Every structure is written in structure tokens, then in C-alpha cells.
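Q: Predict the assembly, please.
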Amino acid sequence: MLSVLNDPNPLFVKSLRARMRWAHLLSWGVVTLTLTLFVAMVIYLPMVHRQGVASAEAAKAVIPAVLIIQAVLLMFLGTGSVAYGISMERDEGLIEYQRMTPMSPTAKILGYLFGLPAREYVLVALTMPVLGWAVFVSGFSVVTILHFYLIFFSSVWVYHLTALTAGMVSPMPRMTAIISMGLVFVLYFVLPNLSRMGIPFFEHLTIRPLLFGMVWEELPVEMRMGAEQSGIDEARPIPWFGGTINQTVYALLAQGFVIGVMYSVLRRKWVRETSHLFSKASGVVAYAGVLVFMLSSLWAIMVQDEVYASVFTTRFETAEFVDGEWIATMRNPNAPIARDPEVVMALLFVTIGLMGVMYVCMTTWLTASRHTAIEGWRRAMKLGQTRLGWNSDATTSLPACLLMLGLSMAATWLVLDLAASDHGFYGRGPTPAGLVLPVLAVCGCGLFVQGLCERLGGLVFVVGLFLVWMIPLFVGVIVSAAFNELDLAMLVAMPCPPVPIFSSVALMLETTEPLPGMRAGQFVPDDEFSSFRAISTAGGYAYFVAGVGVQAWRLMYRTRVRRIGLGAESNERSWLDADLPEQTEDF
Amino acid sequence: MIETREIRVDYGEVTAVTDVSLEIGAGEIYGLIGPNGAGKTSLISVLATLRAPTYGDAKIDGKDVLEDVAGVRRVIGYMPDLAPVYKTLRCWEFLDLFARAYGVARHERRARVSTCLDEVNLTAKRNAKAGTLSRGMTQRLVLAKTLLHEPKVLLLDEPASGLDPIARMELRDLLKRLAGQGRSVIISSHILNELSGFCTSVGIMERGRLVVHGNLDEVLESVNVTRRYVVETIGASDGVAGLLDGGAGVTDVVTETDAKGNGVVTFELAGGDEEAAVILGRLVAAGVRVKGFGERRRGVEDVMRRVGATETS
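A: Predicted assembly structure:
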């Protein structure tokens, strides 16, 4: 510790010198302090002098405002500084100097992580006296504030690491700052809404639950401004498989997981820029980690009545118009909770959707480009090896993708099994015959994506996916909207994976055994069921055949790449695709 | 000190460097010459541990560039082609950053920074922001950074680009001095003249291959490069061509007249200084009013053309 103070991280010192010249610091400091004081006084003084609120209560209202200013400084401006700083260094080539120094990758990551936003940390420190005054005057719990800061800084590091990673890996370094700010927006305002479906992972990457649920909670009721919302931004124990865990522990676990993944990516990139973001093993581990978080939430919804009720039952049964106001009537808390099989389907759709997006991203990150594969084979040949290392960047991503598919299907099966076994969704789970179609559809789509990614790679793969997936989907939507021909629309949109997967899952759930007195199949009207079954079955089988076909194409390509790598075949440009670098730069 | 064996570097199916084997001893200054796209930067990147070779071995000071990346990075100083700097840092701050990063002891840092600034003649700019320096000064600042940790091997990719003639001379002197201290230097350029005179050996790269290497004269000899001479006369150079045509080893005589009406005759001579002196004597004896006589240095393009021809044949 003493040595760190005595001889601090060089990159940290560099950023202090570059970003904290007196002139800059003074001007930024004056602006920040003025704005903070203005916000504090504009809240405090009118409450005390015009509304007659006690000064302690008025000072309490200042606290969340200052905390939000601090969040804006570190999470928006700080993230922008990190993204801009690292992307400029990468763009100008300065990062190569740093790569050459004998500092460890960890020291380099820490140097940038705390150095690039150094000015924002100082600006936050400047707002502290205002916060201290408010806490002192209001008698606000210092423990609550410290508790909040624990998650606050952990969350800040998540965002800063996200920006650092984006800057290190983005193919367009100059766009990184904008991409990172957009990412912060999505992470803050879009993804936390998954909490409403019982998946609190993304919400807890932010400070929202603690800010609104804990700090806001201490404000007088009239000052809360409707912050509490159903299923989100609340102080609550977090459902975790069969039990619950403390919200702070959950937030630290979620943020720690993301920090760990980002660190692993950055470390690989610091050691060698051309490395993939993940090794095959670390990619599967990261994927499995996200699955564990999702499964923990789904599991809890399946097995815990209170969790199910808190997410999926309406709190208020009726509303009455009394004295000019609608008054909601609370449902009877002792009434039995009716489980709705459609909830399982909705949850499965959300989960499969998230897993699908992650699968496509991870497949892209793990799959070797053509030249990486050829280089790998050339090196292997030189070293007298007949195979590529299982975890090397050059090797095929198929085993890793199959593993991810297997993990996803196992997780889905676990959820279905829980839904069927004594938890009131179904009388009995899907039969083995009922499982065949979803398994074929999922495997078919998974193999299709992996095969296409490895065969085409890069931009061609992305454009290919757009053509094969999105255009049929758009046409299907138009057909459905214009002509109300649902069967035809479904048939046309079948190449888009969510259609065959979701329809096969819906078909599977339709054919589960219902609870006594209930009908399981409620998703498709009876008069449309037979055509729905026919189209879904055709789609699932067709995708499986397509997946196997693309894999055969990939295998032929891979064999040729191996032969080129081993020097057994010439390497003519006519055979090559368009994404190769032109030999125009100075090699 | 530097040893490579059958290095190959691929960018996709494009091969940038192929089968390059080199041995450079302590105290040598090795000039790597070749046109743009020849593979110089790729080869230097491999030695600098910035790019893994597709295959082949490279060792610096006995350390493998693939196996002991950290060890290699401690003993090399690398200066890239377009040398960037932190524009908002002062010159001494820029150097101090790298002195810290390379682990120069705290009590030695200030002195090392001053010494390096002095070596590249930038002491006067010590407190100037790096972003305000001219291109040449920026190159010198980066060179100073490269010297900070007293590396045993210097890898300099086109370090003279942007330098004025005086700075180039100073660079030559500095490199000679460093080589004299037992350091090895690899310096790349696409201008042959830039390297002649102080490189102990050169290697010529063409399309990824090291087509020829050794002492500069030996290299020129091995690619059978004839010397081209120029004779300047007062007044027209009538008759000079006739005198030259009869000489042994003289070919490709071209006669021109400059704007003032003076003659300029150029010719190829397969021979050394002795043969040139004989021809000059013959011209003077024949009453030609010689104003100037000298060798026109060959550009790397000529050498490359010749190397290409040799390769083809």
C-alpha cells in the first residue's frame, strides 16, 4: 500500500498530469460546485421558507439530488472520458507504447480505469461537502449512505470497464465514446425493466434499486415522487433459486461477475491485441455465468409462491370511484395463488430470447476468421502438430457452441421440469415426444448460426443474417398486418429463428398435460391449431436440416482452410471472400 | 543479440514476411531497406513482440519473442513509424511516464529524463507541451523515450522521416555512439542514402523476403549494381560521349544540356574509383572543360529494381 502511494501507477500519474491542470480543474470545479450548490439551495430553501418544512426534512431531500449529480459526473461524464481517452490512444497508436512497457496487464487496466476519469472523481469529491452538510442537518443514516456508496462505486467500475473494453475492442475507436454512452443508456433505462418479468440481473448493475429503494425510502412520503414501482427499484431481498439473498450481496455478485468478465477480456487484449475477446473456455464460462443468474430468478418464480405472486399477480383487484378519486382495492392476501401456464411461456420466450442474443454474440466472438484459422494451421504444421489446441483462437468454435446450446437446453428443461413438478403450472411436463421439435429447432438454429459465422465471418455474416432472418420477418409482418393471413405470415417468417423456436415451444406447452379442471393449450385458438402445428413442425424440421446443411458446407470449407494452412493447396485470391485486407499499407 | 529463423508473418492469405533469417551481433547497426509493403514494419513488429509470427523463431538477447514477451520488452526500445506523443503532456512528463513504466528507480528518473532530452537536443523544450513540437522534434522526443530504459536493442522504424538534415546527422552520430556502447540497432528506411555511411550491415527486403544482406558495399556488389557517374562541362559537351563510349565498362551514356547551355553527361560504369579516375584523366587530357565529375548515388528503387531482376532471373 505504502509503495503504491510512494510510487503510484504511471498511467494514473499520466492522467492526473494530462487532465488535472489547474486551469481545467478550477473551471470544472467552479461549474460543478456552483451547480451542486444551486440544486441544493433550490430544493432546501423554498421548502424551509415557503412550505414551512422542518430544516432536517428539507435537507433530506437534498441528499438524493446530490447523489444523482455524482452519478451523472461519474457514470455519464466519467464513462465518456474513459471511452474517449482509450479510443484516442488506440487510434493514434499510443497504446502500443503502453503495450511494450513491462507493467503487468492488471496494472495497465487499473491505471486506465482510475486515471482516465480522475477529473470526474475530483469533481465528485468537490460535491461531498454539500452532501456532508445535508447528512449532518437531516440526521440521515450515515450507514445507509456508506451502504449506497459501496454499490455506487462498484456500479461505476462496471460502466468504466465497459467503456474501457469498448475502446480496446471496437473496430471504430472514434465512435467508442458515443457507443459507450448509448450502452449506459440501455443498461440504465431499458434492460432494468426485465425486473418486471422477475429477472433482476440488469437492474442490479445500476444504482437504481439502492437509490430509489433505500435512500429515497428515507424521504418523507410526499417527497418520493412516485419512485417506487412494481417489481423494480425497490429495496427487497432478491429471489435466488429456492431462497432469497440480500440485495446488496446480489448486486455485488452481479457486478462482480461483469467486472470479472470485462477484466478477462481486457487482460487478453493487453497481452496481445489480435487475441479473441474470449478463449473458448472463458467464453463458455461467461455464458454459463449469465445462465446461472437467469436460472436463479426463473427457479425462484417457479418454486416460490411469494415470488410468483409479487411478479405476476395483480396487487389490486378492483378500483372504485370514491369522492372523485379512483381507489384501488387490495386483493385478499390469503387467497390461493393461481398459477398461469401462460406465464411459463412468456418467461421462456424472454429467457430464450436473451440466451439467443447471447449465443449469437458469443459465437461471433469465439469463431476464428479465415486468416486466424490458416495462421493457426501454419503454426501447427511448423510445430509438427496434427491438431489445433482445443482452446486456441484458431480452432473451430463448434464444440464451444454445442456446449452453450446444451447448457441452454438443460436450463430450459430445468425450468419446465420445475413448472411441472408440484408447482401448479402443469399436471405433468412435456412428453419426450413433445420435446423433439423444440430441441430440433434450437439445435438447427444454433448449428446454422455457428456454421454461417465460421464459413462467412465478419461483415458478410452480419449481412447474411440480415438477409436470411430479417427480410422474411418483415415480409411476414406485412402479410399479417395487411391481409390478416397468420398462417402465411408465419410460413414466410419461418427463416427468422424466433419464429420456429417460439412456435415449437408454444406447441410443446400446448401439448402438456393440464391440471385438473384446466386446459393447458390456451395459446392458439382451436380452429387454428392444426395449421399451427403443421407449420411449426415443418419449420422446426426445416431449420434442423438447414443447420446440418450449413455445417456440411462449413466442414468442406474448414477442410480446405486446413489444407491451405498446411500448404497442401494453393491459396488463390479468387476463392477468397471480400473481407481480406488489401496489401496497400506498409507491412 | 538478435536472431531470427525462418520468420513468417501472414495477414490472412497475404504473406507479409516469409522465411527471414537474421543474425545481428552486439554493437551492430543493421539497416533494413525496402520499398513500402516490403515487410519491414511487420518484421520489426514481430521483434517488438507486437505481433506473433505465423511461425519461425526470434530471439533477442537470448529471450524468445513468443515465450518471454516481458523479458524481451525489457531489453528493447521500439520507435514506430508514425511516432505519436501525448499532446497534453510536457516533454519531461512524457519521458517521466515511461521512465516510471519501465521501472527506472525513483532517484534516477530525473537524471535519466534530462540525459535523454540532452541526447536528442531537446533540453530547451523540456517544459513545452508535446503537442506543440514540430514533426522532427516529436520524432526526437519519441527517440528519447526509446532510450530511457537503456535498452540493449533498438528497433527504429523509419526514425529519420520528418527530420531536417542537421537532425539526421545528429541521429547518425547518436546511433553510432549507442552502437559503440555495445547496443544493437535495427533501423528501417526506404531511402538507401539515409543508411549508407553508418550501418555496419544492411538487408534488402522485397515482397516479404530478405533478398540480400550483408555489408552495404557487398550488397551493392552482390546485386551487380553499376555506378552511375555524371560529368558537367562548361559549354556544350560535344565529343564527350564519343570519348566515353570507347572506355572499358562504360555503358548507357546520356548527353543533356542544362538551362545555361552547359553539358551534362551521365553514364554507367562497371568498376570502382580507379576506373573512374582513368576516365576523368582521359577527358581532361582531351581538353574537355570539366566543371564537375562525381558519382550519382543510387536510390533504393534502382537497387530494388535490380534485386527484382536478379530474383526473376
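Residues 2-312 of chain A form one domain. The first strand of chain A starts at residue 238 and ends at 240.
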